[in-house]
Each structure stands twice: as C-alpha cells, then as structure tokens.
Here is the input.
Amino acid sequence: MLLARIVGTVVATRKDPRLVSSKLLLARPVDPDGKHEGNHLVAIDTVDAGIGETVLIVSGSSARMAAGMKDLPVDAVVVGIVDHVDVPS
Here is the structure.
C-alpha cells in the first residue's frame, strides 16, 4: 500500500472497454511527512478522490482485489482518502 498525493487527472478516450466510466487519476507517492518521492503513476479511483488529496493506493495483484476491480486490467487503485498521518517521534 502506498501513500500518494493526487496531482492530476488522465483522460483516455480510447481504452479497454472494461475501463469505460472509470475515473483515472495521476498520483505521486509521498512519505509520511507529505514530501514527494518516487515516480508518478496512474490509478483507478474508487473513492471519489480529488486533486491535492492524500490517498491510499494498492498496486499489483492487490489492485484487482479492490471492490469492482476483479478481472480488470488495472495495476493501481485508489482505495482510501487519508485524513491524517500520525508518526510518533
């Protein structure tokens, strides 16, 4: 599971028919302090996330276990919107 910030949207008018009506978001992984790390990725949105929000993303085979993703050609799915990250010192 990854922490990431939504930085944009992706529009693909031609795509696998199983992805029609799926909202595609551009996300960038962040550390617990919110600093960007790693490369951007495209994820299917299942929780109505928006630009600027910190989210939880599952990837790989776990992505296809998210609600409604079974047998879809997905590698990353937004499964939660983060309210707060607390890292005790």
Q: What stands out?
A: The chain has a mean pLDDT of 92. The beta strands are 2-10, 24-29, 41-45, 54-59, 76-81. The chain is about 0% helix and 35% strand. The two ends are 22 Å apart (CA to CA).
